[in-house]
Amino acid sequence: MTLIKHLSLLLLLFLFCLNANSQPSATGKISVDKKLTNKLVQALTGFHGEVGVYVRNLKTGKVALVNADTLFPTASMVKVPILCGVFDKINKGELTFNQELIYRDSLKYDDGVVGSFRDSTKIALPKVVHLMISISDNTGSLWLQALAGGGEAINSWLDTNGFSQTRVNSRTPGRKAFQARYGWGQTTPREMAELVTMIYNKKAIEPEASERMYRYLGMQFWDGEAISQIPPYIKTAVKNGAVNQARSEVLVVNAPHGDYAFCITTKNQQDQSWQKDNEGYALIRKVSAIIWNHFEPKSDWKPTGNVGRYWF
């Protein structure tokens, strides 16, 4: 490594650690894992766009942060707040978990599974929730957003629970300017990771609701990025997202030596392709592997390296 590159990395590490200590924390007083942070800084160097990462070891409480409190588009990660909004309504008795819903053509947003239903199709609410989380069905998600009381109600729940930067923008009064900039939703890597961690800790809504939401997050169809770098026998709770200029993923990993949560988000990517080698997708895989190997250095499992063969 050249002297100039070495000094640049040290400067970046210093700035990121400074940022970590100056930003409000969802977890109270924090201890920074400088070794992991340094690995992440090196991995992100040269990325053609903006990127943020937040990692917390749920056993030790140590964190690694790179632009962890910067706002990014949620893309489909917004479906985690929608999930919380739906279960909040169920908990209040304003929705019934197993209630039957009737699909109408006016609900159609795209040609996903729910958008392909015939008018008057009957479907139970938990099946729509499953489609929203597992395959990221957009029509079903917007339907559930409305059932949860809309973006205003979901944002109110987020605010009440300490997530001041995470917001639903789409179809939410007063948020057109934010939608133009960030799309469907906006968040920070720290807040999104801590939201999934709250679900994991059984503190979102109430314990039974949290457990049910955590099970849904463990049923992920889109597993070609961060999950692909974690052994298939390890439990993960995940939601990912993608739009042209942004890629993102949030996980809680039930690892052998201690569970951990992390979120990686990008924006303003130069690479807007939708192939498996998109720079954002590749970075998510790279970061996920770094974090897994950092916490599980003696693991004898390694990915095949041929992610693309079965990549959707």
Automatic annotation (TrEMBL):
What reaction is this protein's catalytic activity? a beta-lactam + H2O = a substituted beta-amino acid
Give the signal peptide as a residue range, or say none if absent.
1-22
Alphabetized SUPFAM superfamilies for the sequence: beta-lactamase/transpeptidase-like (SSF56601)
Alphabetically, which GO biological process terms does the record hold?
beta-lactam antibiotic catabolic process; response to antibiotic
The record's keywords, sorted A to Z, are: Hydrolase, Signal
GO molecular function of the protein, one example?
beta-lactamase activity
Q: Domain named Beta-lactamase class A catalytic: which ranges?
A: 52-266
Keyword Hydrolase included in the entry's annotation:
yes
Keyword Signal belongs to the record: yes
- Give the protein name, as stated in the record: Serine hydrolase
